[in-house]
Input
Amino acid sequence: MWKIIWRRFRRNKLAVFGALIILSLALVAIIAPLIAPFNPNQQDILHRLEPPSVKHPLGTDDLGRDLLSRIIYGTRVSLLVGFVAVGIAIIIGSLLGLLSGYFGGWLDALIMRFVDIMLCFPTFFLILMVIAFLEPNIWNIMAVIGLTSWPGLTRLVRGECLSIREREFVQAAKALGLSNRRVMFVHLLPNIMAPILVTATLGIGGAILTESALSFLGLGVQPPTPSWGNILTAGKDYITMAWWLSLYPGLAILITVLAYNLLGEGLRDVLDPRMMLE
Amino acid sequence: MLTGLSPKVGAEAKARLHSLYGLDRPIHVQYWHWLSRIVRFDFGESFKDGRLVITKVLERLPATLLLNVLSLLLIFFIALPIGIISAVRQDSFFDKGMTVFVFLGFSVPGFWLALLLMLFFGVVLGWLPISGMHSVNYFYFSFWGKLWDLIKHLILPVFVSAFGGLAYLSRYSRASMLEVLRQDYIRTARAKGVPENKVIYKHALRNALIPIVTLLGLSLPGLIGGGFIFETIFAWPGMGRLGFQAIMSRDYPVIMGVGVIAALLTLLGNLIADITYAFVDPRIRYR
Amino acid sequence: MENVLEVRNLSIEFYKGGKIIQALRDVSLTLKSNEVLGIVGESGCGKSTLALSILKLIPEREGNIVSGEVLFKGEDLLRLSDEKLLQIRGNRISIIFQDPFTSLNPVFRIGNQIVESVTLHRKENLSTHQMEKEIIKVLELVKMPKPKDTMWSYPHQLSGGMQQRVMIAIALSPNPEILIADEPTTALDVTIQKEILDLLSELQKKLGLSVVLITHDFGIVATICQRVLVMYAGSIVEKASTSEIFYNPLHPYTQGLLESVPSRKEPPGSPQGGKRRLKAIPGQVPDPSNLPSGCKFHPRCPIGSEDCKLEEPSLIELTKNHWVKCIRAG
Output
């Protein structure tokens, strides 16, 4: 079965394109110290706000730091936040969704009420409020983004559970006397992996956007640690003088999120529901 | 936390504050008091300037509503045709082009787009203002002058605010329309001899609109959330900007106030969505 | 009796997942005036495709007319201009489908959907009052209980049988010459099936309709069809009058089909039926993108020979007006 998926995946050009970009970015993040021409935190006030040149291909920021290096290091932040935040959301969301969808009854009602309440608030505002009470740093951001994204996933997983729960193989497993836990994790979960995976991939893109927005507002990753979002803060302040500070970090975000979206949509086509047919 | 004020505040002042805010009462009593006040929209006074929170919020609400409603309208009137035409001309050049646009729309960080547009239209071209709702000499304008000034200030924020929603709704419209076009009753319409454009714009569209229209109501929370960033970037005097400033200055009563109002608006959006759905789908309206 | 409709050498291809599917292969038929022609076959044999193709209802994205003609009053429907085709569809030739619930538009009231047929094809403008009268008239024609209430209802408020009556009403309101009925009763409850069939039969006689009735149920064929076509894998394998088909089926496939129908008079296990087991045709319907060579039925045929694999037989008139596509028949 995996071979079929792989073959179909290869045929989907967009998904492959997205995957390649993501892999390149991951590579950049890992070997950042090797490829960055400058130390990203190295200040050089004499050469602040210099436009792109041979020495500084993307220019320098307001403290004379090389923009290219900062953007390269910024990759680390984005990827890390993306994965961790979405990881948290998936674990909580899938678990609650499985419990809700499988057991039904009062547990389902309780969890769903909670989900409904959380969905009442505009997500971003919720994040802002929570960050306001906490100290802005990368770990809190990851936690907060993760903890505010799980409701959507719970609904999705629950829905999938409900539709699969009544199918024969689940009934068969229960009839065989398998424990609930086993039925849920061994039988139900693999079948709902597909939409979870798709949502997760798209979610990483979303998490990166959220993190950069927060950093932009000063509530995310704090300088001097470079995050594409907080570089853009300087971009805003010096908008009339240094267009490169506004352009390049945003471009980095765009390309990264685009890659995740392409991959996610591609996965959506490749997995589910044709997989069911085969 | 609250008493993280100036250390010069003496113990006596602290005690007075304590009793003023009822912090010396048991926690459940405090909660009850808070809840009963919230329900009456009494959020207390702002820490910053002592004015009533509710007043401050209501002052800013119209500006936010103006921005969001216009965004919604923009989204609806542009995304819907794009989606429908993409579906009708599936796989055409238009469809593929729009798909590219949509993907970009999903991936662009809104605030970055705002910056770029501000840079381009505001600084480089100088056509549009980049902050605030009115120009400095607003009050000297005639009625038409005022209107034009308002419009100029609205263009960038509304566009940027609507951008993400545009992408989403056009994708959704396309999907909805495609789904409808596959249905048997479309085949029946053709079999009856209905001309193709009527098949699409009478038979199909009416059905495709049902989920789309409800989605609009559900888009409101997204717009409000985005409002926090965009209002701040464009210095738009709305609720979002108020909320953001409150967060930065730890003005908790205001944060609470804005939060509750935002939640209410979200609920309102959901309610509108549900009502619209019941109204528009006869299968729900008539049991 | 002249021919009201003639299909000549029609071949249709579909594209699905990169493969080419030959849905119809060189199909020809004639429909005589005032007759009920049955088309029988299992799922996937191409009978619905045939029905849709007559009115060119297969979207270009999905399927392609490779060759053939559909002649109605001397004109080839497949090559008509769009404008002229619209005048034929739902007007001179109507079609009703299998599932009436999904075939009706859920957001428009019944009256609205019926009157659309009327206003589309008549030149005069009718007043609201006249339109209402027309709707009621046509609902009474299909024996709808409480036509006035039905007129204002939405499709989901009606039962399956009533929905199908509405479909028939829509189809017949412009007074067409030909009605194509694609499995009109398959989706309905058994008791309702008979009602609808009786209705169709009655209307056919009353209005002098020529009907093409598509079904997989031989019982229905026996009840109202005068002539029968049996289809398999996209082509017609036997063509004869109803009585001929039943008493003297010549093609092994037809014989197999008839034997696999449980008989009410000879239930297995009863004294008359004895130990008669339900006979099924062995094997499966072939994959339409990968048809066997020669005669498409030969892999499952009880009397197949080596010659059957070589070349696909043509339809030959073995006895008077009884055509078979089999080299070993008779």
Observations:
- Chain B touches chain A through 36 residues (CB under 8 Å).
- The two ends of chain B are 55 Å apart (CA to CA).
